Amino acid sequence: MKTLSILFLLALMVPDLSAQQQESEKEDSKKIKIAALPYINYSRTIDFSYGLMGTAFYKVNAEDSISPSSSTMLIGIYSTSKSYVGMLVQQFFLAEDTWRTKISVGTGTGNLQFYEEFYTGGQFVDYSNNMRFLVGRVSRRLVSNLFVGVSGGISNSRTEFDLEPEQVIDIPLNFLGGFVQSDSRNNVNYPSNGHKIEADYKNFGAWLGNDQSFHRLDLTYDHYSNFGNEDRVFLARFHSRISFGDVPFVGQHTVGGENIRGYSEGRYRDNELYSIQGEYRHKFKSRFGFVAFGGFAMVTPDISELFDQLVLPGVGAGIRYRILQKEKINLGLDVAVGRNDWSLSFLISDAFSR
């Protein structure tokens, strides 16, 4: 019933969004384009959530016709489980797309759960995680589609577990890192061809003030192709996120979200996550469209044990509404099912964009 209620609320919002689009024909003449809307969602872990999401798109240099639009995003979300997040994400594309920067700052508390095997059997354990963070990255184009960059961040994580006796982990999570990226996509918001390949390394060493020293390596390959029509796009994606060393609880990775939609319970988590998925995107002549996606993920404490783990499939579909034509920004609602789990996702812009 809650899912149906959310779908009904979204349906009520569509006329308002359509009314806003009567002015979008003047979009080309606007220096700042804004996509803003109420946020409505439901998760089996954090229950019903609501808030506001808004993004402004603009050119830093009006004469720069090569750089994608820079953007400023504000997010404020609260849930009936008393989880919340407030975040600002600033992204710049500069000097004919020679320089790219991204800065995120925010705070939030997630009242979540994880699955633990006890001697009496497996069960979910509730926990609350509070995060305060400031992270950033900057990259420079070297040749053609090749970018090289550095990243860094400071944050603090406090995790309280609903166990007897009470357990609390309060640790800093500071890092420095570097990444290499090959990006040939024809549009960062809604690519219809090209690829994005990235290797991203982060060092959470004790020399940065961390209580536990570990490393993280993200490897991503996205490939976009169309069928002779930019309104029909297929995306193939491989992603791995590997933490190694003295990995803390909050340094582990959970199946869900962009790493295979269809999981919201937080049951499957470990030091290493691997996923493969595909997505078909179809836009109609109107502003509406749909997506269909599927794939699988696996989590493991070490890659040597990967093939001893469960294969976690996820399949689903979603609807899209093109709120900004020139920027190719969509509003979306995705519903997916996984192994004994499901998820509902509400988003501005498509998965894996920017």
From TrEMBL:
<keyword id="KW-0732">Signal</keyword>
<dbReference type="Pfam" id="PF01103">
    <property type="entry name" value="Omp85"/>
</dbReference>
<feature type="domain" description="Bacterial surface antigen (D15)">
    <location>
        <begin position="180"/>
        <end position="299"/>
    </location>
</feature>
<feature type="signal peptide">
    <location>
        <begin position="1"/>
        <end position="19"/>
    </location>
</feature>
<keyword id="KW-0472">Membrane</keyword>
<dbReference type="GO" id="GO:0019867">
    <property type="term" value="C:outer membrane"/>
</dbReference>
<protein>
    <submittedName>
        <fullName>BamA/TamA family outer membrane protein</fullName>
    </submittedName>
</protein>
<dbReference type="InterPro" id="IPR000184">
    <property type="entry name" value="Bac_surfAg_D15"/>
</dbReference>
